[in-house]
Amino acid sequence: MDWAFVHKIWDKWASANIGYSGHPLKAALLINYDPTGPSRLLSTIAEQEGIKANPIELSHFVDFIKQNKLQTETFIIGSNQYLVTTIHENWFGARCINTSKPAGEGAIVIQTAAYILVALYEGSIGPASRAMAAADQLTWQLGRKNL
Predict the structure, then answer these.
(1) By C-alpha distance, which of 30, 6, 14 is closest to 109?
(2) pLDDT for 12-47, tens place per residue?
(3) From residue 122, how far is each of 15, 25, 31, 101, 102 by CA, in Å?
(4) Strand residue runs (E) in 25-135
(5) Residue 13 backbone dihedrals phi, psi, to 5 degrees
(6) Pairing state of beta strands 80-87 and 91-96?
(7) What is the mean pLDDT of the chain?
(8) CA–CA separation, 55 vs 45, rounded Å?
(9) Does the predicted model carry a pTM greater than 0.90?
(10) pLDDT (0 to 100) of residue 22
(11) What is the Cα–Cα distance from 30 to 13, expressed in whole angstroms?
């Protein structure tokens, strides 16, 4: 695993895409993920920006993905509970069901060969499109190194 490469592209990507005013994302997490690894191995947080994630909470989220519960259960990131609304081959979208934000909140989750990217945004259709484009930029760069 090329940690230096991942850290470098994360820092560059996060500074351009995560923040409140004018940025497509309010927060993001990059989680180490090996779907073929033993279940006793906890996935770890490789990078995070705009959120302070709890590793134990994230283990429940990773189990949610591993057990393919996308269509039957909700998941929690931070204090928000999400319901999956869109499922594709290597990514899914979800909406927050307990938000107090008038325009709502959402999450885009993309699985790469070695990571799960969780991109969190505020808003509806337009912000979701910008969030997807931002998330896709990072996963494309990780994919270049087969990560």
Answers:
(1) 30
(2) 999 999 998 889 999 999 999 877 766 556 678 899
(3) 17, 7, 21, 8, 9
(4) 27-32, 45-49, 75-77, 80-87, 91-96, 105-111, 115-122
(5) -65, -45
(6) antiparallel
(7) 91
(8) 7
(9) yes
(10) 86
(11) 12
